[in-house]
Design a protein that fits this description.
The complex is a heterodimer of chains A (320) and B (387).
Chain A lengths: L4 E14 L2 E14 L3 E5 L6 H8 L7 E6 L2 E2 L4 H7 E4 L11 H11 L4 H14 L15 H12 L6 E5 L7 H18 L2 E6 L2 H4 L4 E6 L2 E6 L1 H6 L4 E7 L2 H9 L4 E7 L2 E6 L2 H14 L4 E7 L3 H16 L3
Parallel strand pairs in A: 3-8, 3-9, 6-7, 7-8
Antiparallel strand pairs in A: 1-2, 1-4, 4-5, 9-10, 11-13, 11-14, 12-13
Helix pairs in contact in A: 3-5
Chain B lengths: L1 H29 L1 H24 L4 E7 L4 H12 L3 E6 L3 H9 L5 E5 L3 H7 L3 E7 L3 H17 L3 E7 L14 H6 L7 H30 L2 H6 L5 H31 L7 H25 L3 H18 L11 H8 L2 H15 L3 H25 L6
Parallel strand pairs in B: 1-2, 1-3, 4-5
Antiparallel strand pairs in B: 3-4
Helix pairs in contact in B: 1-10, 2-8, 2-10, 8-10, 8-11, 8-12, 8-14, 10-11, 11-14, 11-15, 12-13, 14-15
The chains are: A alpha/beta (320), B alpha/beta (387).
Chain lengths: 320, 387
């Protein structure tokens, strides 16, 4: 293994034994996270993001395959990993009845940060997380965004080389989300921190240097956001039809329309040739008395690429 | 080099343990409502239970069939009355009428004194038949114990029969072990026997319950995940979590013993330090049991219920209320799984009888073995992972 790799999994499988039989939460995931990059594991609810992260950290036993962090095996060298990484669990998991300061101090002690270092780092991290004025507040009484920032600060107190963040902006308002990602951006720029982040939000995926698309326990694509978007064939056409349901039916079967996605009251069509199909579609809809507002070509975003890839994947697995 | 890593390991380990202990203490002190509950509830329970248990045992309505009607037989009946355990308010002609009286609920105990009682006493083979209402365990136990002591004082052999009234459940064989009870309790003062055992039971409930709850809570709210992802080792987690609980349980035990002394006048007869050390072993075994409970329950509610069941089992099978000797082997075996069973003998031995280690070494050994075993088991089931 090269020194350049921070996190690595090879054909990772995790099955849970439940009352209703075996559940395969992670089904042969192979991924590599390079040092210093921000890797986004994205996928819908239940895709297996949390389970993958937990196995990587040795919090769950893997069923098959390999996984390691900084060259340490997740199962065999668990404690070496735990001394060197930071982690934010998906749900808020800091002791709620300890204050902000007590939480910081606790995790610093647990991670063997010396008293002098604590004197320096804790105020610095609190400042960085914007929590300086809340040191005496109980962690359970913080707002959603502040909780996540505290969790981040605690996970950084031992200056880890890698952090794994499981949906760190879940239940956080848009402004705080932006702030949180700015913090991550700073960390990456200043400290060269490797960031592994699970998220269901596509706009967050765009901020990653590379992403893995996870769906039903499998990694269906992994590349930079730019390349992922190129995986989708065709160009993207967006418009708002005056009568949504029949409009969708009409365009779905048309020649040159590769894929139809709905986006609120708008339709997103992947077409092979924008200039040509644009006329045909407008014409076909007009023939049925449906007008199109604001028809234009747009850059496909992660969202469209993601839906398209998932659709293709499930079509394959259902043998269509 | 190797020594360095070992030493460094120990230092880091201690730092983690002390961080965990500080966290637990801070949380404990912050949650003062629960703390007050933990400290006050045992006192209240002791107050109520002590009376509930002891009030049922004396002034048993008693029917007598005296077939001798000589001085010795009258002495015997007198002794029964003076003990305070028996209220003789009915005299009948023979055994069948005694049984009928108990059957009809006019009496709960019956004594049949055979003819020529004085003569038999002279010869040393006097016998008295004691009949007890088998539907009430308290009557059964204390009635038998009291009668046995009186009979011994009167150089009489006690024959025993138990009567089950219609619908009443059968208690099983007779409690032989009560004889020792009376021997060491010449004043017939039940409190001196009940209070120490009650103290032990209440402290066991606190030790088991508090531990199970604190671990299960950590799992239920998910904080265990954030803890496990640090370099904390399972054993450190156990030690860090349990130390504050040891202290609380010890304070609890001291409080109930003191309360028993001041309110119920139960004197502390034995060696205090011996008691302290053995109490520590007892508390640790309770905490270990709590850890085991936490591994089989998933929610705080389940943990609470499991603790309640354990308390019930402990009350019934540890020898606290019912004597263990007459229990069927299987039931007794279940009682063997509870540390209270051994500590009951120890605490009664030290507090009430004032005996030293020579008299309770057997229970002490078993209790120490138990504490080690249950802790090992708990440490083994306490994983460094979530699954
Ligand atoms: N402890 C468990 N026991 C049984 N099944 C589990 C367990 N944990 C997860 N699963 C199942 O594994 C699958 C993947 O779950 P996981 O939590 O990893 O998904 P996720 O991508 O993190 O989703 P979410 O966005 O909801 O957090 C789900 O179907 C889930 O029900
Ligand atoms: Mg998840």
């Amino acid at each position: 293994m090269s020194d350049d790799i921070a996190i690595c999994t090879q054909d990772l499988v995790k099955r849970f034994r439940t009352l209703r039989g075996m559940v395969t939460a992670v089904n042969g995931v192979t991924l590599q996270v390079r040092r210093g990059e921000t890797y986004g594991l994205i996928g819908p609810d239940g895709a297996g993001k949390t389970t993958t992260t937990r196995v990587i950290l040795g919090l769950l036993k893997r069923t098959a395959g390999e996984s390691s962090v900084l060259g340490y095996d997740s199962m065999r060298n668990t404690y070496e990993i735990r001394e060197r990484v930071g982690y934010i669990a998906q749900q808020f998991a800091l002791p709620a009845d300890l204050t902000v300061q007590e939480n910081m101090r606790f995790f610093a002690d647990i991670q063997d940060v010396s008293a002098e270092e604590q004197q320096r780092r804790i105020p610095e991290l609190l400042e960085f997380a914007g929590l300086t004025h809340f040191t005496k507040r109980l962690a359970g009484r913080l707002s959603g965004g502040m909780k996540k920032k505290l969790a981040l600060a605690c996970s950084l107190v031992h200056e880890p080389q890698v952090v794994l963040l499981d949906e760190p902006t879940l239940g956080v308002d848009p402004v705080s989300r932006r702030e949180f990602w700015n913090l991550l951006g700073n960390l990456r720029a200043e400290k060269g921190l490797t960031i592994f982040v699970c998220t269901p939000y596509m706009d967050e995926a765009e901020r990653c240097s590379r992403v893995g698309l996870m769906y039903q326990g499998r990694l269906i694509a992994h590349d930079s956001p730019k390349m992922i978007k190129r995986l989708v064939p065709g160009r993207l056409l967006e418009f708002t039809p005056s009568n949504f349901v029949p409009a969708r039916q009409i365009v779905t079967g048309m020649e040159g329309v590769l894929e139809v996605q709905t986006y609120g009251v708008m339709l997103h069509l992947f077409v092979d040739d924008v200039a040509r199909r644009r006329q045909e579609i407008a014409g076909a809809l007009a023939a049925q008395g449906i007008t199109c507002v604001g028809m234009r070509e747009i850059e496909p975003r992660m969202e469209e690429a993601f839906i398209s890839l998932i659709r293709r994947q499930s079509d394959q697995s259902h043998g269509v | 080099m190797a020594r360095d890593t070992v030493f460094g390991g120990a230092r880091k380990s201690w730092k983690r343990v002390s961080a965990l202990m500080r966290k637990e203490f801070t949380q404990l002190l912050r949650d003062w409502r629960t703390l007050v509950m933990i400290l006050v509830a045992p006192l209240l329970e002791m107050f109520l239970l002590a009376y509930a248990v002891s009030l049922t045992v004396d002034h048993i309505p008693t029917v007598i069939a005296d077939l001798s009607l000589d001085t010795r037989s009258r002495d015997f009946v007198n002794a029964l009355e003076i003990s305070g355990f028996f209220d003789v308010d009915l005299y009948v002609a023979d055994e069948s009428e005694v049984i009928r009286a108990i059957d009809e609920g006019r009496a709960r105990a019956g004594v049949v004194i055979p003819p020529d009682f004085s003569v038999h006493i002279e010869r040393g083979d006097a016998q008295v038949l004691l009949l007890l209402d088998g539907s009430d365990a308290f009557t059964l136990q204390s009635g038998y114990g009291a009668a046995l002591a009186i009979a011994q004082a009167q150089a009489t052999e006690l024959m025993m029969e138990k009567i089950s009234r219609r619908g009443a459940f059968d208690i099983g064989q007779l409690p032989i072990s009560t004889s020792t009870r009376i021997l060491y309790n010449p004043d017939m003062d039940d409190m001196t026997f009940i209070i120490p055992a009650l103290a032990a039971m209440l402290v066991q409930v606190v030790a088991v319950g508090m531990t199970a709850m604190s671990v299960v809570r950590e799992r239920e709210v998910g904080t265990i995940e954030q803890l496990l992802v640090t370099p904390v080792r399972p054993l450190e987690l156990i030690v860090g979590k349990l130390t504050p609980n040891i202290l609380i349980a010890a304070i609890d035990l001291a409080c109930v013993i003191l309360f028993g002394n001041l309110w119920f006048g139960v004197a502390f007869k034995g060696d205090l330090w011996l008691f302290v050390w053995l109490s520590l072993v007892f508390i640790i075994s309770g905490l270990g049991l709590g850890l085991l409970v936490s591994t089989v329950t998933r929610t705080q509610k389940e943990a609470q219920q499991a603790t309640a069941v354990l308390m019930l089992v402990a009350m019934m099978l540890s020898g606290f209320i019912y004597p263990r000797a007459p229990m069927p082997p299987l039931v007794r075996a279940v009682g063997n799984l509870i540390p209270l069973t051994y500590f009951n003998n120890i605490i009664r031995g030290i507090v009430t009888k004032g005996v030293g280690l020579t008299f309770i070494w057997h229970d002490t050994l078993v209790l120490i073995g138990y504490a080690i075993l249950v802790m090992l088991l708990a440490a083994l089931t306490f994983k460094k992972r979530l699954d």
